[in-house]
Each structure stands twice: as structure tokens, then as C-alpha cells.
Design goal:
The protein is of the alpha/beta class. The chain is built from 13 helices and 18 strands. About 35% of the residues lie in helices and about 25% in strands. It has an eight-stranded mixed beta sheet with strand order 3-6-2-1-9-11-12-10, sandwiched between helices. Strand 14 and strand 15 form a beta hairpin. The structure holds adenosine-5'-diphosphate (ADP), aspartic acid and magnesium ion.
Length: about 400
């Protein structure tokens, strides 16, 4: 039988007992005749702990050294899991990204996988080994260690599944599937049996962290169905796939939220051609992804430009914008880290008018102020104060009857 790629997230390998449980699960599946390639994340909390260490020794640690440090978290998990499998009588070998040959571009902390060599993995599989690969990491053109961005182990798994032409890619996490909203915020959220790549892409890009965005992009590109499920039970999870879906056409499939965003405003810039181009080109040169952008109506030839970025990039974005104040003849740059983005997602929106109005009035009824709005074909997003996130997600979940 063919290759199965399984990825276990941080909570699934958080302590010795859980590592042993995972080892047993892997050996059980292998005993059915499958070749097993396993991707693991760092133990829960480890990556944050390492980041805190970095901040303890330097105000602005370089991205290269951060990657060198963070990659060690995944190395703990691969070694422990291989030991546990061997102890249970199985055969396992752990491999770092460098040993496998997972090549990335040169952008530290958000590197993209460019190439995977399958030779070493295939060699080990043919010896009957369970192959355990460190998630989240790669090596760049200089052979330096890179990381793929927070949550990036999912992407390692899907990329390996695509390159090995695996039969199945399973993502094991601490929830048993993709829900209509984060079950931590909405206790009556419903598990989706399946979701299309496009809807999942939209959910992931709008903050639903159950899958790393790049992993869904790769799943779609290489047509790898992704099964999201729990390592703590046997429940069927959610299949992320292409093609016709049974429940396709629902107006809204889910509510996504992202409370890790910051809003920056550059006040009173000259309202003339080329100004926005200059600002956003400079931000892009610093590898800052800008999300929403709003420009106020011009008053006496001056306008305010507001935009949102990931909280992680906020300080850098503020520095870049501040460094341009003179050049732009702007008045000031303001940064606000207490914002959140709430979005509704669904392909059915394409053909159903009135969805935006329904969303905005539901938020207004709860006295939630909408500060920015953006739309795509299959989603509508709003920026609101971070303190209103929970109530906003619950309200939209119930107004669009996702609990039904
Ligand atoms: P892992 O460490 O296994 O990669 P993550 O923390 O990255 O796990 O992702 C799982 C978490 O995603 C869940 O605990 C859940 O709180 C969160 N989440 C947010 N939105 C959703 C959703 N719509 N469905 C399922 N989980 C969600
Ligand atoms: N350990 C990394 C993180 O915490 C990668 C992952 O868990 O996917 O972001
Ligand atoms: Mg994750």
C-alpha cells in the first residue's frame, strides 16, 4: 500500500505520554501495510518559549538567528518520537529539513518551500523505517536554516505529501476538524464534514489557524486532500478538497477571526498621484505584508492612509512609515495594536445579495463599531476593536444560522 503523511501538532507531542500515544497510533497504521512519513511540530509552547529567550538577550535579534533557534523546537519532537517508536519495537529515524533536502527561498521567518528531494525519505521507507521529519524548517540557498512562519509544520506535511505522491495527508491537532467558527469562542460551532480548498484558503488567510495558509495553497495546487482530525480520539475529521462538495452553495460556511492585527495610520499625506505607491512599495521591500488599506476622503489636498498588518510586523511597519514622514510631508504615524478582523466566508455569497448588509446590521445591533471593511468574491471582513471579538464571532455565527 501507499505512503501516508501524518502531521502531529504541538499539543499532540506536549509530554512523554502523548508522544508515546502518537508512536502507538503510527505503528498501528503502519501495521496495516502503509509506509509512514511523519511531520511533527515543537512541543506545545516551545516556540514561544524560544522566542522569549531570544528577546531576553537582544532587542532586535536577527531573523537568521531566530530561525536557527526556533528550528531546535521541532528537533526535540522528532528525536523523542523516534525514540518512543523504537522503544515500542518499531523502526524509526528522525530527519531535519537539511537531511531531507527541504529547500526554501531566503526569507527568514516566512520562507517558502521551493523544492523537496524525496531520495533520502524513499531510501529510509524502503528499509521499513517510519520517517520522522522536523516540520516548520527548511534550508535556503546558503544552506542556512529557515522557518516557514508560525504554524508552518502543516505546510511541511502537505509539501511532503505532494512530493511523495502520498495517498493521504492527515493533520492531527487538538480539535477534531474544521468548525464553522473557532470552537474555543463558539461552543456550539459545528464540525464541517468537508470544505473546499477555496473556502479553506479564505478561512486560513482570514485568521483560522487550524491550517497554515500555505498548506492549503499547496493542497489545492497539487490536489492533495487534507484530512484534519484529532490525535486524542478516532472521530472522523474534516476533509479539505476540490471538486463538488455535498454542502456547497451554503451562503456562509464559517466565521473567521484574527486578533493578531495592528492598524497603522499615516495622517495628512499629500493627496497626489504616486504617494500610496511609494508607501506600499517601501513596506513590501521590508517584507511586510499589508492587508487592508483605507484612504480617507481628501480635505484641503490632504488624506489619511490607514492599513493593517500582522502584529508581528507592526513595529517594523511603524518604523518604515515613520522614516517616510518627511518625504511624504505627512503629519504623523499612529499604531494601534488592539484591533481584530472578523470575517464571514462562503462561496454562496457570490449569488446571494444582502449578505454584507446582514453582517453589518448584526454588528451594529451589538453596538460594535466597524473601522474598516474589505470584501472578496467569497468573504467579507471588518476591522473592529479587539475587545469585541468574542461577541462579534458569536453574533455572526448565530445570525447566519451556522449552529443549525
Ligand atoms: P496545532 O498545534 O495542532 O497545529 P493549532 O493551534 O495551530 O494546532 O490549531 C488548532 C486550533 O485552531 C484549535 O485549537 C482552535 O482553537 C483553532 N481554530 C480556530 N478556528 C478554528 C475553526 N474554525 N475550526 C477548528 N479550529 C479552529
Ligand atoms: N512550532 C511552530 C509554531 O509554533 C510551527 C508549528 O507548530 O506548526 O508556530
Ligand atoms: Mg497549527
Amino acid at each position: 500500500m501507499g505512503i501516508i503523511v501524518q502531521k502531529y501538532g504541538g499539543t499532540s507531542v506536549a509530554d512523554a505520554q502523548r508522544v508515546r500515544n502518537v508512536a502507538e497510533r503510527i505503528l498501528y497504521t503502519q501495521s496495516k501495510g502503509h509506509q509512514m512519513v511523519i511531520v511533527v511540530s515543537a512541543p506545545a509552547g516551545k516556540t514561544d518559549e524560544l522566542l522569549a529567550l531570544a528577546r531576553g538577550v537582544a532587542k532586535k535579534p536577527s531573523s537568521r538567528e531566530i530561525d536557527m533557534l526556533l528550528a531546535t523546537g521541532e528537533q526535540i519532537s522528532i528525536a523523542l518520537l523516534a525514540m518512543a517508536i523504537n522503544d515500542l519495537g518499531g523502526k524509526a529515524i528522525s530527519l531535519t529539513a537539511a537531511q531531507v533536502g527541504i529547500k526554501t527561498d531566503d526569507i527568514h521567518q516566512k520562507a517558502k518551500i521551493t523544492e523537496i528531494s524525496s531520495r533520502r525519505i524513499e531510501e529510509e521507507l524502503s528499509k521499513g523505517q517510519v520517517v520522522i521529519v522536523a516540520g516548520f524548517q527548511g534550508i535556503n540557498s546558503q544552506n542556512d536554516i529557515t522557518t516557514l512562519g508560525r504554524g508552518g509544520s502543516d505546510t511541511t506535511a502537505v509539501a511532503l505529501a505532494a512530493s511523495l505522491k502520498a495517498d493521504l495527508c492527515e493533520i492531527y491537532t487538538d480539535v477534531d476538524g474544521v468548525y464553522t467558527a473557532d470552537p474555543r469562542l463558539v461552543p456550539n460551532a459545528k464540525k464541517l464534514k468537508e470544505i473546499s480548498y477555496d473556502e479553506m484558503l479564505e478561512m486560513a488567510s482570514l485568521g483560522t489557524k487550524v491550517l497554515h495558509l500555505r498548506s492549503v495553497e499547496l493542497g489545492k495546487k497539487y490536489n492533495v486532500p487534507i484530512h484534519v482530525r484529532s490525535s486524542f480520539n478516532e472521530n472522523p475529521g474534516t476533509i479539505v478538497k476540490g471538486g463538488a462538495l455535498m454542502e456547497q452553495g451554503r451562503v456562509v460556511v464559517g466565521v473567521a477571526h484574527d486578533n493578531k492585527i495592528s492598524k497603522l495610520t499615516i495622517s495628512k499625506v499629500d493627496d497626489k498621484p504616486g504617494v500610496a505607491a511609494k508607501i506600499f512599495a517601501r513596506l513590501a521591500q521590508s517584507d511586510i505584508n499589508v492587508d487592508m488599506i483605507v484612504q480617507s476622503a481628501s480635505k484641503e489636498g490632504l488624506a489619511d492612509i490607514s492599513f493593517t498588518v500582522n502584529k508581528e510586523d507592526a513595529l517594523k511597519a511603524e518604523e518604515v512609515a515613520t522614516s517616510m514622514i518627511e518625504e511624504l510631508v505627512a503629519q504623523s504615524v499612529e499604531r494601534d495594536d488592539n484591533k481584530a478582523k472578523i470575517s464571514i466566508v462562503g462561496t454562496g455569497m457570490l449569488t446571494n445579495p444582502g449578505v454584507a448588509a446582514k453582517m453589518f446590521s448584526a454588528l451594529a445591533n451589538k453596538k460594535i463599531n466597524i473601522e474598516m471593511i474589505s470584501t472578496s468574491d467569497i468573504s467579507i471582513s471588518t476591522v473592529i476593536p479587539a475587545s469585541d471579538v468574542e461577541i462579534a464571532v458569536q453574533t455572526l455565527h448565530s445570525v447566519f444560522e451556522l449552529d443549525k
